[in-house]
Amino acid sequence: MSQSPSECTARLDKWLWTVRLFKSRALATDACRAGSVTINEHPAKPSRDVHPGEQIVVRMGLITRTLIVRSSPKSRVSAKLVPDYCEDRTPPEEFEKARVMKVQHLLEREKGSGRPTKRDRRMIDLLLGL
Description:
This protein has 130 residues and is α+β, with helices and mostly antiparallel strands.
């Protein structure tokens, strides 16, 4: 990874896509425009250059991911190589919060649908590991 300083910069939307935070570059651009991405606690535009050492915070649904930029890949990298380009400092509580909310969402019932049936109850027990 011996890159010159000029090669270590990349557009924010492209960097977010290459390190696999978003499935497409368009989704990364939309997230930047929506204000879901900040660099060093400042809102960031999709065209902003990313430099090593910067802290990027991305709100993705229920989770707020915190990353430190190490380098910029030339193209999209495999999941195994992502740690070479960024350091993930997302607290474990963020992932736990998403897991709890997912279970609550699955258990949520439409108002007026009545009590769970026996089959529904078995599915809930299976889901919760009871």
